Give the backbone structure.
Amino acid sequence: MKNNQAVGADYEQKAAQYLETLGYRILERNFSCRMGEIDLIAMEGGYLVFIEVKYRAGIKTGEPQEAVDYRKQKKICRTASYYCKVRRISMEQPCRFDVAACRMGEWTLIRNAFDYVL
């Protein structure tokens, strides 16, 4: 049986493949700093997209995207802001936050899952 970290890495890889079929160009995987971690960072349709990947094996624990609560969103936003600063991303670059959720093998993509201005 795989541990949670291995399962998470496996689904992040699957999410990257899924997103690439939708036209996303993956720039980075597992960007982390002292503020937090972002699963995937990509370009899509002129947007710099910060993507949180969530997986649930069944229905007992609810929908995977429900795990991206306000507290998690704030952490992702702070990390994204830091990413833009260290990568010298222009303040003019449009950004958004997506959630790629997988439950029982079915993917759901929520574009612009939460609003935040960097």
Q: What stands out?
A: Residues 4-21 form the longest helix (18 residues). Strands lie at 25-33, 36-44, 47-56, 95-103, 106-110. The chain is about 30% helix and 35% strand. The longest strand covers residues 47-56.
